Amino acid sequence: MAEFKNFEAFELDVLKEVGNIGAGNAATALSKLLNKPVDMAVPKVSLLPFEEIAELVGGAEQVVLGVFLRVEGEAPGNMFFLIEENSAERMLNQLLSLRHDEGDKGYSEMELSALCEIGNILAGSYLSSLADFTQLPMMPSVPAIAHDMAGAILSYGLMQYGEMGDSALLIETTFLEDHQSLEGHFFLIPDPGSFGKIFRSLGVGRE
Amino acid sequence: MTGQTLVKVGMADLNVVDGGALLKTTGLGSCVGVTLYDSKSGIAGMAHVMLPSSDIAREAQINLAKYADTAIPELLNRMTVLGANMNRVQAKMAGGAQMFAFAGQSDTLRIGPRNVESCMSMLNRLRIPIVSHDTGGNYGRTIEFDSGSGILMIRSVQFGIKEI
């Protein structure tokens, strides 16, 4: 874990830029899908204790829809696209005129599959821009979706960090459309060994 | 129910209580929540186990609560210090889900079932009977243990509240 604590401010800035480029392209893709302007917040790059990670989306028990993809290639990692239930419903409505029954807590297979595909498209554009920028090949795995507690979903992406300590470094970007009427969160959690490669590919490696 | 003290157990964390206090841990996915209980003394402990074995640990200072093979003995230890009788301790557990299913699973992705297996074998080795458990599946759980009644309450998004 020591190596993470040593990250310099400029290295964190580099990672922020990584988030900016990736999420910027994903936001453009989402905006095209919805045919509406989509804003995004400045990416947050932080080394967070496990316990606090789910707080970024409203706590471990916050029920969300989460699309998970494993990033394969030169700089492997885990990627999550989390959307709150209200936003997911709005997205389904706007995009596919799939109506979600009010009060019905479950999602049909069709609805989950549509959300999973949205996550897949966004993650794909995030990763391909990142791969262009770093010149490192990165491929998303087949996506999977879960409708569950944020803590349960996100903890899945933290196992590689569990072996090394009690915190993980992640790049988080929030999407907003119409000031919060539609909110989504992107999490890129590179494997611990991927940071060196990302830095070197961008010419800021130390080794 | 009101007036009961609630003690939170974080991720890769453990805690012990007595005197009817509640132990709670939220958002268990592939992690396993293990509770140990000595009903006579009312001493209870809960651990939020994240990984099956400390053999893979690469951290300088091991967090005992994180691994199945270290968390359970540590929990038992802390309980006996408080006055629990080892021979009376019984276990309940929940969690160990496989949140996402993929074809051609690697071992890292099967972490939930491996956590469960590892907790069970550790409990067997310490001769602690497992009175009930609610493990596996593909959904997250929040659990709350009542050290007054010995009931473990399990909440999930799809199945609501369940008591074991």
Automatic annotation (TrEMBL), chain A:
The keyword Hydrolase belongs to this UniProt entry's keyword annotation: yes
GO MF terms held by the record: hydrolase activity
SUPFAM superfamilies to which the protein is assigned, alphabetical: CheC-like
Record's keyword terms, sorted: Chemotaxis, Hydrolase
UniProt record, GO biological process: chemotaxis
Domain CheC-like protein residues, every copy: 10-46, 110-145
InterPro entries recorded: CheC (IPR007597), CheC-like_sf (IPR028976), CheZ_family_phosphatases (IPR050992)
Entry-linked Pfam families: CheC
Protein name, per record: Chemotaxis protein CheY
Organism, scientific name: Paenibacillus agaridevorans
